[in-house]
Amino acid sequence: MSHTALIPSHRKPRRNASKTALRAGVAGGVLSTIAVAGAAGPAHAEPVTQTIEMPTITAGLSTTVAASAEATQQVALDLETQAHEDAAATTAAKAAKKAKAEAVRKDEAKKKAEAAAKAKAKAEAAERASRTAERTTLSAPSGSSASGSSVSTASAPVSSSATGSAASVVAFVQAQVGDAYVPGGTGPNSWDCSGLVQAAFRTVGVDLPRVSQSQSTAGTQVGLGNLQPGDILYWGSAGSAYHVGVYVGGGQFVGAQNSSTGVVQRPLDYDMPTGAVRIL
Fold first, then answer.
1. Residues 6 or more apart from 181 whose CB is under 8 A from it?
2. Do 259 and 186 meet the contact criterion of CB atoms below 8 Å apart?
3. With contact defined as beta carbons under 8 Å apart, do 202 and 217 qualify?
4. What is the pLDDT of residue 234?
5. What tens digit of pLDDT does each residue of 239-267 get?
6. pLDDT at 149 over 50
7. What is the pTM of this model?
8. C-beta separation of 207 from 199 below 8 A
9. Which of 19, 60, 228, 244 counts the highest number of beta carbons within 10 A?
10. SS3 95
């Protein structure tokens, strides 16, 4: 017998392989649980970190941003330019519309004025034709006297009591009796009514307007019952007279009447004037 046979052994008995594997599995599970709990544990525990390197995306970014900004600015400039063009077009359209309306208004006013002038000329022509017919009737022989001689309403020139400048005017118009009547005539051998009156007063240094309308307001208005030799007689309204002549005294006047009679001297009742003006 060995001298160690009675000494108890300190070795633990061997465990079989299955038990060992089981314990290893339990231990592994416990360790895994502890690791998970540690990760979710108190704040003072150090978290597991891992650095992930991201791919670089800033390459060419500044160029893209600049191009985008430039495109945005160009769009803004285009919009501003378009706005200015639209405003200018609107302004031009309004101006054109206003100009057209003004042109239409002026054209209508011109047409109205022309129509009024034609109507006035027609009325004056009719009045003159009526006066011409009346004068023709009055100047024709009106009958015979007791001795059988015919009597004419035409009056021979009479001497005037005018003196000074008025006498010169009277002498001038009487000297033209028998001259022809021509529209627009101003002498020396053919006249219209206002041309004869203007020429007569020009001999005494008075420059009268050319037309009857203006001559009828060139002096002081006087009544037909207060006439003096040298007064201007007018037919029609003052300022719109259609005929003028010169009072020569003795109830008679001289005027360039019409193309049928020419310049004549007649009594006032041959063609009673509307009014008179005194220049001298």
1. 190, 191, 192, 256, 257, 258, 259, 260, 261, 262, 263
2. no
3. no
4. 98
5. 999 999 999 999 999 999 999 999 999 99
6. no
7. 0.47
8. no
9. 244
10. helix
Q: What CATH number belongs to 164-278?
A: 3.90.1720.10
Contacts of 105 (CB under 8 A, 6+ apart): none
Report the distance separating Cα 212 and Cα 190, nearest Å.
17
Instruction: Work out the mean pLDDT of the chain and round it to a whole number.
Output: 76
Report the pLDDT value the prediction gives residue 30, as an integer from 0 to 100: 45
Tokens linked to 238: 């003052």
What is the spatial distance between Cα 238 and Cα 3, in angstroms, rounded to a whole number?
182
**In the numeric block, which tokens belong to residue 147?**
């001795």
Summarised one tens digit per residue, pLDDT across range 175-187 is: 999 999 999 999 9
Domain ranges (residues) in the chain? 73-138, 164-278
Q: Which two tokens stand for residue 36?
A: 């998970």
Here the tokens at position 125 are 């022509």
List C-alpha distances in Å: 52 to 49, 55, 57, 241. 10, 10, 15, 115
